[in-house]
């Protein structure tokens, strides 16, 4: 029997990283999988006229990790938990840890740019390049965690059955683990005049218009996952508008928002895509970004 892949959470002692570790622990318990806490630390002396102690810095890194591990072990005694200091720069350390993970969890700060679990660009780089799903978690600021069935899982669906398979799989798994409703959202807009073709007009006529066509496309994408997870109640949400606006509106009270990130290289490096970018900046709940072909 294959051992389940662990969840990996990055911690640095900040409130947002500890919120991410707490979320990851609860998720690991729900899914009955191990949790691995990691702290990236690389000795990089600064060019300053002061004494810099490598041993003290290494000890502080261990203390940060140990504090998080002890807290979670006390609160989640049923959790299989490990903790490691990764001696590398933050982004490569997390990306390497993510190769063996079922999910990577990092913290984000406030409602501005995603800051990752250390500094500005780290979170964005990890989300854009990770091989596994990455969940960005904001500091909860004392809000109680939703109980079973209290908050929906919302997923953005686009494209066809094959293109959205990985994203829908993750969303159905999350909803099943929470015993809650899954809201599947598909946004659509009128194509420009020059985009109309005999083929597209034939499809629209066949389904009675563009909106019925979009509803049929969503139903088709959901069907194999409904069969695999019959216990998950699914709400289909098809709305005209921009993908980001429709998805954020639908997720205003969600417990988790799931979006996709197409795996492709651009001239400026990996990118998250406009919808995922908007979700990471503006969604109030944790956001899972799932890579797909």
UniProtKB/TrEMBL annotation:
<dbReference type="Pfam" id="PF00582">
    <property type="entry name" value="Usp"/>
</dbReference>
<feature type="domain" description="UspA">
    <location>
        <begin position="160"/>
        <end position="291"/>
    </location>
</feature>
<dbReference type="InterPro" id="IPR014729">
    <property type="entry name" value="Rossmann-like_a/b/a_fold"/>
</dbReference>
<feature type="domain" description="UspA">
    <location>
        <begin position="6"/>
        <end position="138"/>
    </location>
</feature>
<dbReference type="InterPro" id="IPR006015">
    <property type="entry name" value="Universal_stress_UspA"/>
</dbReference>
<dbReference type="InterPro" id="IPR006016">
    <property type="entry name" value="UspA"/>
</dbReference>
<protein>
    <submittedName>
        <fullName>Universal stress protein</fullName>
    </submittedName>
</protein>
<comment type="similarity">
    <text>Belongs to the universal stress protein A family.</text>
</comment>
């Amino acid at each position: 029997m294959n051992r389940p892949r662990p969840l990996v959470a990055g911690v640095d002692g900040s409130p947002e990283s500890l919120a991410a570790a707490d979320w990851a622990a609860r998720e690991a318990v729900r899914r009955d999988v191990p949790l691995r806490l990691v702290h990236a630390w690389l000795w990089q002396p600064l060019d300053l006229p002061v004494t810099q102690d490598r041993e003290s810095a290494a000890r502080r890194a261990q203390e940060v990790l140990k504090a998080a591990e002890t807290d979670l072990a006390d609160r989640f005694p049923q959790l299989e938990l490990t903790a490691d200091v990764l001696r590398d720069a933050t982004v490569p350390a997390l990306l390497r840890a993510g190769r063996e993970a079922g999910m990577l969890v990092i913290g984000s700060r406030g409602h501005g740019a995603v800051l990752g679990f250390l500094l500005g660009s780290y979170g964005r780089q990890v989300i854009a390049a990770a091989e596994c799903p990455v969940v960005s978690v904001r500091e909860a600021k004392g809000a109680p965690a939703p109980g079973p069935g209290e908050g929906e899982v919302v997923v953005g669906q686009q494209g066809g059955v094959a293109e959205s398979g990985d994203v829908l799989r993750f969303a159905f798994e999350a909803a099943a683990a929470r015993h809650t409703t899954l809201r599947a959202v598909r946004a659509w807009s009128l194509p420009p005049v020059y985009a109309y073709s005999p083929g597209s007009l034939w499809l629209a006529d066949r389904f009675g218009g563009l909106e019925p066509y979009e509803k049929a496309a969503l139903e088709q994408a959901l069907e194999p996952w409904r069969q695999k997870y019959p216990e998950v109640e699914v709400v289909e949400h098809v709305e005209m508008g921009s993908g980001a606006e429709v998805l954020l509106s639908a997720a205003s009270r969600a417990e988790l928002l799931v979006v996709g990130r197409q795996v492709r290289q651009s001239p400026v490096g990996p990118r998250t895509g406009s919808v995922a970018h908007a979700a990471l900046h503006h969604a109030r709940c944790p956001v899972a970004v799932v890579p797909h072909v």
